[in-house]
Amino acid sequence: MNTPRNPPLLPEAQLGPAEKLLDLVLSASAHLWHNRPGLNVRNVWQPAPRGRNAAVPANAARVPPGLFVPAAVNLYRRLLEIYQLNQDLMAHFASYALTQTEWRDLKVACAALMLVQSRSGQPVREDDGSVAFLDDDFRSIGEAMLLHYEKKSTRMLTPKGVLRVAELLETPEIAALNRRAGFSDPGSKKPPLGRWKRAATKWLALRERNPAMLEGLVKAGFKETIKKIARKAGYKPESQAFFEVLGWKQKQAASGHRKVGLTGLKLEKRERFDGLSEAEICEAIETQKLTYKEVVGRLPKDVGLTPAIMVTLLPSLSDRDLRLMTPTLEELGLMAEPEIRARWEKAVAESTDQRALNVAKNVRNKELRDKLEEAADNAARKAVSEATSEADVRVMFLIDKSGSMEGAIEQSKEALTRILAGFPMDKLHIATFDTVGTVLRPKAPSRTAVQHMLKDIKASGGTMHAAAVRALHQSGVAFPPTARLIVIVVGDEAGEAGDQFARAFRECGYAVSAMAMLVSVSHARGSTVKSGANQLKVPFSEVSVDSFNDPYQVPRVLKALMDAPVSAGTVAQSGWVERVMRTPLLQLTPSGVVSKKSATA
């Protein structure tokens, strides 16, 4: 291994807001809430071992289901740093996170920050005290994030998300960050909620005035969540119908001020299906438009979840529900039913995350496991396709297999199996290197083919990144003049000087548009790739291979890395950050309806 001679380009303290934002997207899982018990291992959440008497590692502490505070504080602090450096960038990113991504917990964190930050349309005065104009009201973006609605879309906050915004802001550690940022009275004991109560009240009122919308949320299983939002916001319904739909019995307050819902409430009660035949249960599902969650707990033991009942419930299940239910469907023998299998196959094809890989571990049938792995491949393909839709992007993967990678090479292989199948075969070029480069070609665009291609790679030898570049050139790899080349290196960067690496691209006639580093370190970290990007004056980004353990992270990282990069003069910028800044700002109209405001660079 050669000793690196080039220092890092910028220390953490000197990173600008755009670099910090890109680093956040590439390195933060933004997964804050967990619905099962876990362990806190050096401020990282891990699933708790099963069994009441299961041993807990010495460096771990048990944590209950719910918000994992260390991850929440880390994410919120980083968003706050970006806001303090560039408030316009944060405002556009909040709008981008809601309308352009599936990152549920990130939407919550961004909405929370925008609701409490200090720019709220204050008057800016002339020297004589008269009002010159009103400052931007970025709190209205937070309100708009709660109120944004698109029918049958996942790109809005669910009732659970609306509630979680308040829960996040009420967390003592988050409240302390907001006080230090000057978003509230530092002496106040109450956590600052900004405009959350106002926005939540509007959210509830819109649904009360649209009974079909409220009833749909109740059927989807959000009844208790809506009650919690109403309590926390201090909501006063317009009529008792609100309580009736929620099945929420009321009583007079001690002060005697309650006026609505005290008498004549007709609470809807869900009865079990005991005594009904399978056909009668199916008829009830169709006529009452019941969902899976409403039905499964009411089924008689002697009937259970039959194929006919499951087929009747299929329209109420999302693609994500079906993928997660695969082990249950298999255990009940329902995957043999043609209608259920066809709907499940469609759900696999529409996957937008790689959670199916975790589900596959609980499935016995190999064909079903292979299909779930295919769902993970589909998620990667969609991410790449969406990010490269506006340009002809070619990708060069260079994989370090030198001696310094011993112990880290297996982790690199697992990360690569999750991402390489997402790339079109004719636009992907792969080579390994120590002091010699070797060109690799998967037999097929699938996880299995990538695993087969990588299985015999062992760590040994010295390190020369440029050897991989020259090996690809010697094998005949060339790119059209209009193509944009993204180089992604997997390893520890401990190799030759950056100028030597950059020279290899120039000598081979490769015009690089951007470089990225998938960091996998077992010994020491170098700076070859970062320095090479600096020499070539192209955007550079990095992400740890540990991030790919999160099934939601792979599509996010691929989108950020693959967004067509651009260069402004001699200063390299990320095309992804430019896309964020082009995102229209969410805003409210006087009627409370969410609209979009044209973005300005």
Automatic annotation (TrEMBL):
InterPro entries attached to this UniProt entry: VWF_A, vWFA_dom_sf
Taxonomy, superkingdom: Bacteria
Coiled-coil region(s): 358-385
VWFA domain location: 395-474
Keyword Coiled coil carried by entry: yes
Keyword annotations of the record: Coiled coil
Pfam families: VWA_2
Gene3D superfamilies named among the record's database cross-references: von Willebrand factor, type A domain
Cited CDD domains: vWFA
SUPFAM superfamilies assigned: vWA-like
UniProt name for this protein: VWFA domain-containing protein
Source organism of this protein record: Hyalangium minutum
